[in-house]
Predict the structure.
Amino acid sequence: MIQNWYDPFTAGELWRRIFSFLNLGVLFITLAFGASEFRFDWCERLVGTYLLTTNDTRPETGAVWESGRQTSNAHKSLNQIITRREDTRRSAQSAESFSHLAGSLRPGEWVPLDKDLFKVLYLSLSASAGRKVIDPSHLVWLLNGKTTDRIFCEGQADGVKLYFIDSQNRVIHQIDLKKNAIVEIESGNAPLKVQLKEIEAFAGRIFPAEKFFDAVLKLPTEMISELMVDPDLLLKQNGTIQQVGIWNEAENGYIKLGFEFEYRGENQVLLIQAREWAVWQLSLLLKAEPQ
Amino acid sequence: MTFFLRAISLVRLFFFLGLVIVSLGILSGIFLIFYLAGDLPKLPSPLSRIIETPQSLIYASTGQVIMGLGERKAVPLEMVSKDFINAIVATEDHLFFEHHGMNKLRTLKGLYITLFDPDKVQGASTITQQLAKNLFFSFEQSWRRKFKEMLVALQIEAANTKEEILNAYINQIHFGAGAQGIENASQTFFGKPALELDLAEASLLAGLPKSPTNYNPFRHYDRALKRRDIVLERMAVAGFISHPEAQKISATRPQLHKGRMDSRSGSYFLDALIKELIQIYGEDVVFHGGIRVYSTLDTRLQSFARDALTQGLDQLDTLMGLDPGEKDRPQGALVAIDTGSGAIKAMVGGRDYYASEFNRAMDSRRQAGSGFKPFVYYTAFQKKGVHPGTRMTDKPVLIKIPGAKDWEPQNFEKRFNGNMILKNAFAQSVNTIAAQLVGMTGPEAVTAMARACGVKSPLEDVYSVALGTSAVSPLDMAGAFSVFANLGVKHDPFLFWRVEDAFGRVLFERIVQNKNVLESGVTFQVLDMMKEVVDTGSGRSIRSLGFGRPAAGKTGTTDNYNDAWFTGFTPSLCVSVWTGFDKRRAGKGFCHPGQYPV
């Protein structure tokens, strides 16, 4: 084997080369580096400290931040629900009429309604109009008896529903108020510009005025007052009564009577409430007489 | 000399080569740190902020909290049993108090395996790294994710004391059974605060985070105990306890909190409730909104329901000669509804929630068999003027169906009994007479009537509907039979009464409305016949079991005995029970009135 010219010639030179200052220095630095890292974790500390300085500039990503966002979203959603409900409640509580009440509730929205407020709204209607909402004697029991705990209003596409509920949240009475009906109730029986024959609910139950009143006047006096609860409405109306119709269904113990007036060549129908049982008696008389 | 020189040269070469590689590694590491640092998630300060999620609570109708959602109940370290702290440190990271975020030797080993075995990514997570992973990262296994996790761990260590890190860790780890954090876990599994955990309990809990589902003690108690033995061994090795002490504790069997086990049996109900809440309010509100939900669940009835169904199904197993370990065992479902309101008081969707989360009480649709006959009889009574005293003949029946094969229904006993009044035909569940009735009314009228009673499952307008060939759920049946119990008044079944936000402001409130869907007089006639079923008919075994209260109901079985039903009611409670196999059996399934004892 040929010895290279740069190889050490003696063992002493070999040892000198092995333990040269450079070799020992590199070895020492490497070992010191490794040992100090294992002993003091300075690499980890250095990196950790560096990352701390960049913390504020980094994105809020990851499960914990997502959870925070979800919590924030949840609070926003809940606040929206509550705020909308509070607005609806305030709007409903400040309602001055049933039409305001219906207008303040969107379909599916509901609010509790004070009994006193319901009383105020009800009493703002005329006696006959109020009866179309609920019979007053029934209402007395509902509002002044022990059974009704609260009143709930629920908005509908075509009006509002009022639930009288007991302490077990069971509905003990329900009132459905359609928007059209509310307008009719609150407009105070304004006559309709139609003829009786155009209203399907009167079909087959339209009588000439003479025949109708002949029959009415044959009834006992106390029954006549029950038949026409608000005769003053008829007295206020201009024109002459041509025909009278009887509605085809009863509601809350009342049946509508339609009085067709002719005034200056125009026909109008005025609807008034009549007691169901009195109308029934009247119908017997009307059927008994030849047409 | 030459050989010696060569060896020296080789050592020197390897040394410098190694030095270069290490230097390059360090440089690459520094580069990666700078490269990934901008992409790392921001660390919340203080770290305790991670547990500031308000919990949503679900209450039973009887008042107690049955579940907390998104619950993170944080407790300081001082309020946690020392045994648990020792157990979790010994198990998860025994050098936790010595390292600075990473265990270098384990990391190097992990790195080696990751580099040289591409199919594996070796974990070497310290408690700090686990915390970093849980707080910020997905469970995706990649070197990039691991490196980021390590960097975040280093930052966590730099910004917090060991106690703060450990505190955050034990308050956010999952222990299974819906328990997150040590306080919740302690309450869930042992019904006591974390401070009061003894060594046996603490070591059991410390073993759960590794695999909360597999080691769930409610479900796999013995498996959880084996895992606890490993925890005890590590505690002994780490010097927290002596080996004899570990062996002594290993022999004990901690008593689990039974109340919580019961509430977990209501998991089918809770699943259904949470699903409905999410549909209304969204996941964020349900899990992070801190809402209060007042459910209809009656924990006492739920406990009865679960026990009754379990016992009934166990009896069936015995009768059928099935081993407890057998996979294909009959299933069951039960729904109990308050007839006065429609509130669902109890619901069991299967024999074991932990084995199968499929809710058979709501989501499974099975043929009701003769259980459907009350709808048939009511329709005939109402539409055709027949009544319980009407005489009809039990005889072979053939109904011609245009465009299909003629239908020839058979009786259960394969024989015909001649003339009988309808009350008896109903009590004896005579198929041919039910077929004649549906022939009179038409199937459309029957299905319309069932829908009016609240059956929501799709029903086919076919003559065989008389024999209950349309599939329905136990919830359908319980809800619809409640209408009979109420003499025609329907209440839609529901799961909760009220929802409030964390401040008690009402988000939703249930009001109970009566809906008259059936004629009360006709309904009474059917109800009277259903009483007869329980008193003397196909459901009379209920009376023989000693149940003496006023009750009515109807049994039902299907072809090949694959399904068995009983839906019955007292004046206040309507219960529907189904038993059968999840998969229809080709041959004979089973037929045993296992549902009556239930």
